[in-house]
């Protein structure tokens, strides 16, 4: 079951959901609106290798914002640290940003219970668009879990900002190669 916005607010008040700088104004019927953080990463190499940690170029979004270009992948982060030991969570774009051609989440929407971190956003744009740090850019939903709860304790535990792919930490065996 998905939590209603009011239940998200109640669970934040009870300390069972963590959302930095929680504001009632950003509570939505079934979600909570999060803001874009100030850091953007781009990969520096033309060809990315799954077993080599990628080199990144990091920049801060200035007061005038940052104009993103089509054809590039940008990694951003939610301004807020968010998550719960009691619920799973999923990330979505806002309809209003998505229909402007700003896509913030492609194929990694799931947050495990126990992951209480700023989330990394996979950002692409359809045409040049200026983005500002602090703009409400997406929404997080929380889901009650059925079955035994296991808290996430993985390679992104303890993240404090946008984090590039850590796929290179996979063992050779998990990639289907020789152990
Ligand atoms: N857009 C996203 C999606 C997820 N996460 C965080 C919350 C998740 O609980 C955590 C791990 O997500 P996955 O299980 O999808 O990641 P991996 O399988 O790559 O890593 P691990 O082996 O640590 O599970 O990363 C994030 O910061 N940004």
TrEMBL record:
SUPFAM superfamilies on file: dUTPase-like
Record InterPro entries: dCTP_deaminase, dUTPase-like_sf
Name by which UniProt lists this protein: Deoxycytidine triphosphate deaminase
A Pfam family reported for this protein in Swiss-Prot or TrEMBL: DCD
Keywords recorded for this protein, A-Z: Nucleotide metabolism
GO biological process, one term: nucleobase-containing small molecule interconversion
GO molecular function: dCTP deaminase activity
């Amino acid at each position: 079951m998905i939590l209603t916005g009011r239940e998200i607010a109640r669970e934040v008040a009870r300390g069972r959901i963590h959302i930095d700088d929680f504001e009632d104004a950003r509570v939505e019927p079934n979600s909570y609106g999060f803001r874009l953080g100030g850091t953007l990463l781009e990969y520096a190499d033309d060809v990315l290798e799954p077993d080599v940690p990628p080199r990144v170029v990091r920049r801060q979004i200035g007061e005038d914002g940052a104009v993103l270009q089509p054809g590039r992948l940008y990694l951003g982060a939610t301004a807020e640290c968010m998550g719960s030991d009691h619920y799973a969570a999923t990330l979505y774009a806002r309809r209003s940003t998505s229909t402007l051609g700003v896509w913030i989440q492609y194929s990694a929407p799931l947050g495990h219970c126990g992951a209480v971190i700023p989330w990394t956003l996979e950002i692409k744009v359809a045409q040049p668009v200026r983005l500002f740090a602090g703009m409400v850019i997406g929404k997080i939903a929380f889901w009650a879990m059925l079955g035994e709860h296991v808290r996430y304790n993985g390679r992104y535990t303890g993240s404090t900002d946008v984090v590039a792919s850590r796929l290179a930490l996979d063992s050779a065996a998990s990639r289907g190669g020789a152990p």
